[in-house]
Amino acid sequence: LEEPFRLMERTLGENPALAGRFFPVHRDLRQLEGILPAGGMDYVVSNPPYFPPGSGGTPLDAARRAARAEDSCSLADICAAASRLLRWGGRFALVHRPERLAELFLALSRSGLEPKRLQLIQHDAHTPPSAVLVEAVRQGRPGLEVLPTLLMNRR
């Protein structure tokens, strides 16, 4: 997973407006204690693996498999790490698969993260949603705003 990390660092370096606003860390998110301050972040963003461990499909190289399937990092691990990093009232945003929305909400809830905004993403009006954007608040009050579906191709 070195290449995606290098691309992120390059993007941050090419955008001076982002300087000091992001803290890229290339570590196992389950072992961030002592690296990033607990409760020290206002916003955490994640594009986690979408598929459960051991999911089938075409054989992939190790890096692509790690990025797509939860073989080394679960949805619960990601939500717990985000909650640990966020200050009280801090926000966690992520993209995931709509078919795993119930599992995502359960993992968020168990980590003290309250879903506040949800937006489905579709390629066009004639296809089912392929992704969902969710924003949650650490220790937030109940109440979910469902935004209009985002259509990628408006033909």
Please characterize this protein's 3D structure.
With 155 residues, the protein is of the alpha/beta class. It is built from 4 helices and 6 strands; from the N terminus they run αβααβαββββ. Strands 1, 2, 3, 4, 5 and 6 form a 6-stranded mixed β-sheet that branches. Helix 3 (75-85) packs across helix 4. The model has no long low-confidence stretch (mean pLDDT 86).
Features:
6 strands, alpha/beta, 25% strand, six-stranded mixed beta sheet, 155 residues
> How would you spell out the order of helices and strands?
HEHHEHEEEE
Identify the overall geometry. Answer: globular
Percentage of helical residues?
Answer: 25-40%
Say what oligomer this is.
single chain
Task: Give the end-to-end Cα distance, rounded to a whole number of Å.
Answer: 36 Å
Q: Tell me the β content.
A: 25-35%
The Cα radius of gyration reads: 16 Å
Low-confidence stretches: none
Describe the sheet with the most strands: 6 strands, mixed
**How many DSSP E strands?**
6
Overall structural class, as computed from helix and strand content, comes to alpha/beta
Number of contiguous helices: 4
**Average pLDDT over all residues:** 86
